[in-house]
């Protein structure tokens, strides 16, 4: 691996860590489109470029989620009963969806990723306030929500924050607590997703050296080191910024990512 790519992965890890801590998104929404560009420039096999980006992102989210979760937990911003209840559905949905993603070509994955991100962004910009009486659902409802979040997360290799944060906010959970809880939920999503992509990419011919399954480990290690360091700083900012500012920044981030992913694949 050339030095320029190592530096690029380290910088991406810094940005990912900050955004993960700030928005509780795990960082996959940032990593997938950027890694797709990098892997294309390094002439990775075109038919597997997005798959490798998805898998590598999932693996790198694991340490990022741990750092972000710890930072938010110190501020008592994690609803642990919600985390324990929603996790089984997330594990099933995430792991199962990796099998579907592995058989899809790059274009459908890119389109799904972009449309999903744009939809969530515009929902947050609209800022529709939930009914004051709305609360978190029971165990069955949370398990069902977890399954849906897990499926989408595996298909677009995100830590689940772009779904979990709006969902919890819709249930009248304070935005900072929603972000902290989302950071904790991102860990089982990343673990299950990374395992699924590793299994589905096992034995695939023509993958780059130092790739295990679809996971490209040089990028994972470089990004993980920096994201683990910078995620706590992002978490600190999340508890200092006003709610309205957080929501607008979150929406702008998602719109930019959706446009970028489409540009990478089609222009």
Automatic annotation (TrEMBL):
<dbReference type="GO" id="GO:0005886">
    <property type="term" value="C:plasma membrane"/>
</dbReference>
<feature type="transmembrane region" description="Helical">
    <location>
        <begin position="249"/>
        <end position="266"/>
    </location>
</feature>
<protein>
    <recommendedName>
        <fullName>Probable membrane transporter protein</fullName>
    </recommendedName>
</protein>
<feature type="transmembrane region" description="Helical">
    <location>
        <begin position="51"/>
        <end position="71"/>
    </location>
</feature>
<keyword id="KW-1133">Transmembrane helix</keyword>
<feature type="transmembrane region" description="Helical">
    <location>
        <begin position="146"/>
        <end position="171"/>
    </location>
</feature>
<feature type="transmembrane region" description="Helical">
    <location>
        <begin position="6"/>
        <end position="39"/>
    </location>
</feature>
<feature type="transmembrane region" description="Helical">
    <location>
        <begin position="215"/>
        <end position="237"/>
    </location>
</feature>
<feature type="transmembrane region" description="Helical">
    <location>
        <begin position="77"/>
        <end position="100"/>
    </location>
</feature>
<keyword id="KW-0812">Transmembrane</keyword>
<comment type="similarity">
    <text>Belongs to the 4-toluene sulfonate uptake permease (TSUP) (TC 2.A.102) family.</text>
</comment>
<dbReference type="Pfam" id="PF01925">
    <property type="entry name" value="TauE"/>
</dbReference>
<feature type="transmembrane region" description="Helical">
    <location>
        <begin position="107"/>
        <end position="126"/>
    </location>
</feature>
<feature type="transmembrane region" description="Helical">
    <location>
        <begin position="183"/>
        <end position="203"/>
    </location>
</feature>
<keyword id="KW-1003">Cell membrane</keyword>
<dbReference type="InterPro" id="IPR002781">
    <property type="entry name" value="TM_pro_TauE-like"/>
</dbReference>
<keyword id="KW-0472">Membrane</keyword>
